[in-house]
Amino acid sequence: MHESGNKPPGMVPARGRYMVKDLARLASYYQIPLKWNDNVIAAMFNKRTVDTQRLLIAVALDSTDTSLSQSDRPESVVSAPPGSLLETVARNLWLRIWSTGEDITTTDSHRVVLQTSSPEKSSEWADSVLQKASSTVVKDLLKSNTKAALDLGAFGLPTFDVQVGGESHMVFGSDRFHIIADLVGEQYHGPLNELSTFQK
């Protein structure tokens, strides 16, 4: 967001007030346990989440190929299959900041998330992922991902790069799934709340 010149919604007072109410409505509608809390504000305005972003890349690398080096790494790490460890770690980070109001920016919180996300793995594994998160390979990949997003025209989240017939279509917003479906020639049947893993 910073690199694109955009400002967080909360920096515009009227938009910030609206966003708090709108998020509550969206959480109720989509059955998501989202609760506005002080850690959200702290993470957005006072702390840096760059280490958290690096953690996600380290998890993606660990899940695909632990021997990736500077010379043979992929240009970017942008996705993982449903049910992957990357998805689980990302979801648990989201739950900490948006649902339980816990920190997501420190090494200690990253270690807790790793151990919660993959309890069958050792503490040594968690330490190795944390170490990888501070490596040059991971730092360069985050820079590469950020540049790719800016080159696409991204200015905030969520931004989707929908590839259709060799053509790239940038789509912004969590309320654009019907547009994405249309681009890929599918029907969008709306939120399937009955399938939510966050059933009330």
Automatic annotation (TrEMBL):
Enzyme Commission number(s): 2.5.1.18
Record-annotated DSBA-like thioredoxin domain positions: 4-61, 85-183
Biological process, per Gene Ontology: glutathione metabolic process
Catalytic activity line of the entry: RX + glutathione = an S-substituted glutathione + a halide anion + H(+)
UniProt cross-references to Pfam families, sorted A to Z: DSBA
Keyword Transferase annotated: yes
Gene Ontology CC annotation, any one: mitochondrion
Molecular functions per Gene Ontology: glutathione peroxidase activity; glutathione transferase activity
UniProt superkingdom: Eukaryota
Record keywords: Transferase
InterPro entries: DSBA-like_thioredoxin_dom (IPR001853), GST_Kappa/NadH (IPR051924), Thioredoxin-like_sf (IPR036249)
Keyword Nucleotide-binding: no
PANTHER family xref list: GLUTATHIONE S-TRANSFERASE KAPPA (PTHR42943), GLUTATHIONE S-TRANSFERASE KAPPA 1 (PTHR42943:SF2)
Protein family: Belongs to the GST superfamily. Kappa family.
Protein name: Glutathione S-transferase kappa 1
